[in-house]
Amino acid sequence: MKKFIVTAWMAVFSMVAFAQSSTKSPYSQYGLGVLADQSNGFNRGMNGLAYGLREHNQVNFKNPASYSAIDSLSFIFDAGVSLQLSNFEENGLRKNAKTANFEYATAAFRIAKHFGASFGIMPFSNIGYDFSNTERVNEFPSTTTASTTYTNTFHGEGGLHQVYIGAGWEPIRGISLGVNFSYLWGEYTRSAINSYSDAYVNTISKIYAGSVSSYKVDFGIQLSRMITKTDRLTLGAVYNMGHKLGADPECLLISSKSQYAQNDTTKFTVKDGLAIPDMFGGGISWEHNNQFAIGIDYQWQRWSKIDFPIYTITNDQPSYKLVSNQFSDNHKLTFGGEYCKNERARSFLGRLHYRAGVSYATPYLKINGEDGPREVSVSAGFGIPIINGYNNRSILNISGQWVNQKASGFINENSFRINICFTFNERWFAKFKVE
Questions:
Q1: pLDDT at 369
Q2: What is residue 200's predicted lDDT score, i.e. its pLDDT?
Q3: Are 157 and 187 in contact (CB under 8 A)?
């Protein structure tokens, strides 16, 4: 099984090297794209609930303080893929899209008593869209005819990823601290092309590109206490440190005609023009008799403090510069829970985990000065035990999630995502007696 883990990690890094975007949302054309959920398989069944959860047999990346709860004899490997079906609707027109993507890979193990560690790969944001519209020219330049049309074509791809290593420590009984150190990297390309059917009219292309190579640091804390013999209450909090990413995004303005081979190109660059915001999160969970757990999370990302590079024309002078008021603070509320009759029961049904969750999030994007889409999502899933002759602790986590993004006057987006995640749990550190 150790060979399986090594092989899996080699496959993971290969997949990341050739990663494709896991979204086709038109909303990914703004900001850093569609922000990833950044949760593991068992969290996804509860719609991302995480901050107050302390699992001994699952990796909870969203609060590194939870690593101190990992079983002392375990090595846990968790990886997931997803299939997403999306529907986009605007002014009575509908379009469907589907994507399949590698989501994440994480691992965790106990280093010492009350001290656990984790490492892995997670997405941060995704960009992926391709659409166009064609209309007839209303006011004709002198060289055009009444049949001249123009087409606006929009395309984008890329995103940011992170590889991390983290640790969680419980220095005092019931109080755990944790931290994740991440390397954040990725590239994106966005293009907006305005072309005419008349070959004598210039085609104007705006190409935006950026490359990120930076860091990310997340801190976590959990306070856990038995309030009765069968009931445990856990409070959790996280803080993600915002900062500049050290990236210099570019904008290429290209003017061309089809009958000429030469293009007129102007290049704009914004020094240190990309950043991520501070994020605060808090949650509380209640666990009863190791069977039933419910919790609620709140997340606040301070995107309103972040400026973003925008191409503008003022007094016929083009410029590409940082502009404020492009984002709003993102607030997200999640409620979820899990039930398992007895994770060590002899019967298969008795060991099943049943999960569900619901979330509401305000938009972080502003589009043409208006608030972007708010998000409502619901999920449900199962943790299916894998039982064989040498291992009875591994779990197959399967969940379905429906997400609606909607804003007045903009595209209504509905997505259904299926997450398939495998948590491999092996006793690596057990000492066996020979008689």
A1: 84
A2: 65
A3: no
How is residue 44 written in tokens?
A: 């996804």
Which amino acid is located at 196 in the chain? Y
Helices and strands per DSSP (H, E), number in the chain:
2, 23
Task: Please name which of 163, 157, 159 lies closest in space to residue 180, comparing C-alpha atoms.
Answer: 163
**What is the pLDDT at residue 414?**
95
Q: What is the mean pLDDT of residues 127-139?
A: 80
- Which run of H or E residues covers position 153? strand 149-172
CB hemisphere CA count around 387 (13 angstroms): 13
Which residues fall within 8 angstroms of residue 280, CB to CB, at 6 or more apart?
237, 238, 239, 299, 300
Quote the CA–CA distance of 145 and 148 in Å, as a whole number: 5
CA dist 311 and 390 (Å) reads 60
| 34 in Cβ contact with 126 (< 8 Å) | yes
Distance CA 17, CA 4 (A): 20
Beta bridge partners of 27: none
Among candidate residues 98, 127, 126, 104, the one with its CA nearest the CA of residue 416: 98
Q: What is the pLDDT of residue 384?
A: 92
Identify which of 214, 222, 213, 216 has the alpha carbon closest to the alpha carbon of residue 180.
Answer: 216
Structure tokens at 430: 């057990």
Where does residue 137 rank: exposed (0-12), middle (13-18), buried (19+ CB within 10 A)?
middle
Phi, psi angle pair for 125, to nearest 5°? -150, 160
Which uninterrupted H or E stretch holds 13? helix 2-17
Give the residue among 296, 271, 259 at the shortest CA–CA distance from 281.
296
How many CA atoms lie within 13 Å of 168's alpha carbon, on the beta-carbon side? 32
Euclidean distance between CA atoms 102 and 154, whole angstroms = 25
425: Cα separation from own chain's centroid: 25
Q: What pTM was computed for the model?
A: 0.88
The pLDDT tens digits for 381-396 are 999 998 765 556 789 9
How far is CA 364 from each of CA 224, 328, 344, 374, 403, rounded to the nearest angstrom?
A: 32, 5, 43, 9, 16
What 8-state DSSP symbol labels residue 92? T
Query: What φ, ψ does residue 245 adopt, rounded to 5°?
Result: -95, 0
C-alpha 157/C-alpha 100 separation (Å) is: 15
Q: Please give the sequence-ordered ranges of beta strands (E in DSSP) within 349-411, or none if there are none.
A: 353-361, 366-367, 370-371, 374-386, 394-406
Specify whether the CB–CB gap between 279 and 124 falls below 8 A. Answer: no
Residue 4 scores a pLDDT above 50: no
